[in-house]
UniProtKB/TrEMBL annotation:
Coiled coil: none annotated. Residues 308-327 are annotated as: Disordered. GO terms for molecular function: ATP binding; ATP hydrolysis activity. The keyword Nucleotide-binding applies. Belongs to the ABC transporter superfamily. It comes from the Bacteria. Keywords: ATP-binding, Nucleotide-binding, Transport. InterPro entries: AAA+_ATPase, ABC_transporter-like_ATP-bd, P-loop_NTPase. Residues 2-227 form the ABC transporter domain. The keyword Secreted does not apply. The lineage of its organism: Bacteria, Bacillati, Actinomycetota, Actinomycetes, Micrococcales. Pfam families: ABC_tran. This is ABC-2 type transport system ATP-binding protein.
Amino acid sequence: MIHADNLTKRYGERTALDHVSFDVKPGLVTGFLGPNGAGKSTTMRLIVGLDRATSGDVTVNGKHYSEHRAPLREVGVLLDAKAVHRGRSAYDHLLAMGATHGIGKKRVQEVIALTGLETVAKKRVGGFSLGMGQRLGIAAALLGDPATLILDEPVNGLDPEGVVWVRNLARHLAKEGRTVFLSSHLMSEMAQTADHIIVLGRGRVIADESVETILARAQGDGVRVRTPQAGQLTGLLTSAGVTVTGTAADLLEVHGMPSSRIGELAAGAGVVLHELTPLAGSLEDAYMSLTQDEVEYRDTSAAAAFAGGATAPVAPESARQTEEVAR
Ligand SMILES: Nc1ncnc2c1ncn2[C@@H]1O[C@H](COP(=O)(O)OP(=O)(O)OP(=O)(O)O)[C@@H](O)[C@H]1O
């Protein structure tokens, strides 16, 4: 369990965190999201005592991180995967870390196997790819078999197989009753991994809720209607007080009326329908609308391109662009 209580962190004039409070609970994967500069890494550094809060407090399993006698056994942390002695092998790095906590070769070999590093374990870390470095960072976090895991951008640099591996690992660890706290830029990734999501924007908590709740809110109220009698149906719908936009000669997007009612109205007037599709909102849309005022660095042209698509389902390409905007 991680308990943050009114955490504030200032760097000179800059307020990186502004009265941030939340709980990260055991048995769940909690995603920590926010645009660049939102304060995610700062929060994680404060949790593990790498930085000191200007005010407020944060504890892990009831104590400040530094008060734990064997922190590796209590909290596993991946903050900066590159912060490793580059001349050492992965095996020696893990062994040296373990030595501070009486953790021996057996456990080192276990985490190497768990993270798929067997074939490179004896190679110098300096030659590792970003993905291998991430796996080593995760291995180090798991070394002490801790009850709480804090992983900053764990999928960064991993290939699709690696991303799925982190997802399954996080879910497995939470199922074992551990507290799993993962940061990411990507709502789409988090939605597939996390049970609960905390979103930061410019140093403040702007959402702290279950993925289910966010998904429910993301459901758009739009309906796509394809009909050869678009003009007639538009007339019927607008006189019922509904918003209709034509996206092609035979294609309408309707807001403010459920699909069932649109179908009934059309049937009553003898209007032929070729398609009647409720439009699901996407999680990326929900995230974008949450954070739209909170992004420090925004590509305004890309942002403008998305301004009109708030209820349209996001195609893979546009989802990728959305992620770029959030970065
Ligand atoms: N050591 C520091 N000195 C001054 N400002 C800092 C320092 N560390 C962070 N900041 C500022 O604090 C804010 C929060 O930064 P932080 O790195 O925590 O955000 P983040 O959400 O992790 O972003 P990213 O996703 O880009 O890693 C930013 O405005 C950043 O510029």
